[in-house]
Specification:
Number of helices: 0
Helix content: under 10%
Order of helices and strands: EEEE
Radius of gyration: 14 Å
Oligomer: single chain
Protein backbone atom coordinates (compact mmCIF):
# COMPACT_ATOMS: atom_id res chain seq x y z
CA UNK A 1 0.00 0.00 0.00
CA UNK A 2 1.23 3.51 -0.72
CA UNK A 3 0.08 7.08 -0.33
CA UNK A 4 1.14 9.92 -2.61
CA UNK A 5 0.80 12.42 0.27
CA UNK A 6 3.21 10.43 2.40
CA UNK A 7 0.64 10.43 5.21
CA UNK A 8 -0.57 6.89 5.98
CA UNK A 9 -3.62 8.33 7.77
CA UNK A 10 -4.98 9.65 4.45
CA UNK A 11 -6.36 7.49 1.67
CA UNK A 12 -5.83 7.80 -2.08
CA UNK A 13 -9.51 7.88 -2.98
CA UNK A 14 -9.38 11.49 -4.19
CA UNK A 15 -6.31 11.16 -6.43
CA UNK A 16 -6.83 11.35 -10.20
CA UNK A 17 -4.37 10.10 -12.82
CA UNK A 18 -4.13 11.51 -16.34
CA UNK A 19 -1.68 10.17 -18.93
CA UNK A 20 -1.46 11.93 -22.29
CA UNK A 21 -0.87 8.81 -24.39
CA UNK A 22 -2.76 7.11 -27.20
CA UNK A 23 -0.81 3.83 -27.03
CA UNK A 24 1.10 1.57 -24.65
CA UNK A 25 3.39 -1.46 -24.78
CA UNK A 26 1.62 -4.65 -23.61
CA UNK A 27 3.48 -7.21 -21.50
CA UNK A 28 3.49 -11.01 -21.53
CA UNK A 29 2.86 -13.40 -18.63
CA UNK A 30 6.34 -12.63 -17.23
CA UNK A 31 5.70 -8.87 -17.45
CA UNK A 32 8.20 -8.43 -20.29
CA UNK A 33 7.13 -6.08 -23.07
CA UNK A 34 5.96 -7.86 -26.21
CA UNK A 35 7.28 -5.25 -28.64
CA UNK A 36 3.75 -4.46 -29.76
CA UNK A 37 2.44 -0.88 -29.65
CA UNK A 38 -1.27 -1.07 -28.79
CA UNK A 39 -3.95 1.63 -28.57
CA UNK A 40 -5.16 2.51 -25.07
CA UNK A 41 -8.76 3.13 -26.23
CA UNK A 42 -11.26 0.83 -24.51
CA UNK A 43 -8.59 -0.82 -22.30
CA UNK A 44 -7.79 -0.55 -18.58
CA UNK A 45 -4.67 1.39 -19.68
CA UNK A 46 -6.75 4.36 -20.90
CA UNK A 47 -5.99 7.26 -18.54
CA UNK A 48 -6.42 10.02 -21.13
CA UNK A 49 -9.24 11.47 -19.04
CA UNK A 50 -8.76 12.08 -15.29
CA UNK A 51 -9.35 8.69 -13.64
CA UNK A 52 -9.59 7.92 -9.90
CA UNK A 53 -6.74 5.65 -8.81
CA UNK A 54 -7.68 5.10 -5.15
Amino acid sequence: DFNLDGDPAKNNSEWLLTVNADSYTPVDSTFMTTGEIAPVADTPMDFRDPTPIG
